[in-house]
Amino acid sequence: MLSNIRIVLVQTFHPGNIGASARAMKTMGLEQLTLVTPRQFPDEEASRLAAGAEDIVDNARVVDTLEAAVEDCVQVIGASARLRNMPLPHYDEPDIMARDLVSHANEAPVALVFGRERFGLTNDEIRCCTHQVSIPANPDYGVLNLSQAVQVLAHEIFRAWRLRPDSGFNTASPRSAPLPTQQQMSQFHEHLHRVMEDVGFLTQPHARTEDHLHALFTRAQPTRKELSILRGLLNAIEQKTHPDHSADQGEK
């Protein structure tokens, strides 16, 4: 289960923070590290501060975009201050986040995403996530180092995993069908955008309609079968509006 949990660091500036984060991960049984365009990597400072977790640093996957880092994941949680202009589901308590993440990791890969040291994740990067989580801290000084944030949330994940087998700590209902990957959800949103434009639904560009629909489907967490039904509905609309065009068969 823990092998399905991925820690993603976006554009890390100081290579030492990569090593310190790897050390935090290893103490909590996590080994899957993905780096999105780190400023300097590989680097001796990263290996030095890993202090026994050099294998995680050495095996880290480096990618160019956050989309590439999480495209196969069924749940992606961005660690950030709560952005009220982003209508994504938000975990106010990290332990609840950890229970859900561990539950979904039973089915498929999941990811916990951390942003840059100075300003975290951008709005566009948050849109690649299915949820947000914040770490409760002193309101007068809630500043955490990147590796400290990784340590806190990794500990919550390890605790949820450790307690799960014997105590029924996780109360999430088991799913009867797998969730779609983020790549499949992205394809659905592209299809939805195309149809809404085609039928003239997107007439107010500043209404943030697509942001709200994105949040709606994120909260709903449709299964792969349900997503296939939605893609079939979009195909039917396209066939009605363009009967001479062959339909996109969607994700099955």
Structural overview:
The protein has 252 residues and is α/β, with parallel strands linked by helices. It has two domains: 166 residues, 3-Layer(aba) Sandwich (Alpha/beta knot), CATH 3.40.1280; 60 residues, Helicase, Ruva Protein, domain 3 (Orthogonal Bundle), CATH 1.10.8.590. 46% of the residues lie in helices and 12% in strands. It is built from ten helices and seven strands. The protein is elongated. The C terminus is likely disordered.
Compile the SSE list and pairings:
Blueprint: E1 5-10, H1 15-27, E2 32-36, H2 44-50, H3 54-58, E3 61-63, H4 66-70, E4 75-79, E5 90-91, H5 94-105, E6 110-114, H6 123-126, E7 131-133, H7 146-167, H8 182-198, H9 209-220, H10 224-241
Structure summarized in a few sentences:
Helices cover 46% and strands 12% of the residues. The protein has 252 residues and is α/β, with parallel strands linked by helices.
